[in-house]
Give the backbone structure.
Amino acid sequence: MTMLDRLETLYQQASAELAQIASSEALADWERRVIGRKGEVTLLLRQTGQLPPEERAAFGKRANEIKALLSEAFARREEEIREQELARSMEEGQVDVTLPGRKVARGRLHPATQTLREVYAIWAEMGFQVYRSRDVETDEVNFGLLNMPPYHPARDMWDTFYTTEPGVILRTHTSPGQIHAMREYGENGTKPIRVILPGMCYRYEQITARSEVQFHQVEGLAIGRGIRMTDLKGTLTEFARRMYGAERRLRFRASHFPFTEPSAEVDVDCILCGGAGCNVCKYSGWLEIAGCGMVHPVVLRNGGYDPTVWSGFAFGMGPERITMLKHGIRDIRYFWGNDLRFLNQF
Ligand code: PHE
């Protein structure tokens, strides 16, 4: 077989093979074997010099022609295969828009946070600003400046977590925030104040369905000239009506806190039975929602105010209790138990 014959046969075979190729991998392989730098056509071209001189020109011309033809055929095939592969991948990846979508896992707010936000919104409408006070307190601010010097028997009302640092405790209530707010915003007892102080409180108590070692309180504090007990009663009544419904009635029972005088406990008529008596209000018709009172003169002075000129009221409420009543949650331990079966319900 002459070299020219070999060239023509190679051309026929390579063309036939190219027409059969269906994948880009096989195509790349063909390119390498036939028209690549070490491909068969190229190798044949290099052998031109072995031909008798008179045949070289014709052979070289035809070999270059064939190489060009095969290169063109290769480019066309490459384009076709690319289109086929694209069509196939579009076919395979087709989206069935009639299938139901995958559910997005949605995070949600903790029920305590939901209640807190509701409480903030109501107090905000009534002109109370949120003030954040520290969780880690000193014995002095948590008790001493609130009119409970060391060894005062009233300290027993709050079972306290002490730290290894003498004088540093976890706050047992949000009331120490009253001192911080008065000192920070009162400008040496010259400016009125209207704030709420929400936050976590800690008590060294037996954990039961009704008591936890941590819980939120929302403290309220209003300081001004001529603030009276009637302002306290009216303000808390308005809050309760916005929170629990316009028909709610409030009851103030005389009580005692060392940092308020006079002091009271506040009950709302049962939000479930309306006062008729049910197992939530233990057939009393009333639910306790807050402790409150007029800020004690000693506390006013510790906050920088002259108690002969300034007066104020304060209250503290427990939002977890509010949430439990609202949703019929029977055990407070659910709140910080991190059980998704509980949390998913809100
Ligand atoms: N700090 C009190 C408690 O934890 C509640 C309270 C706040 C009472 C403000 C009066 C005024 O029980």
Observations:
- The longest strand covers residues 214-224.
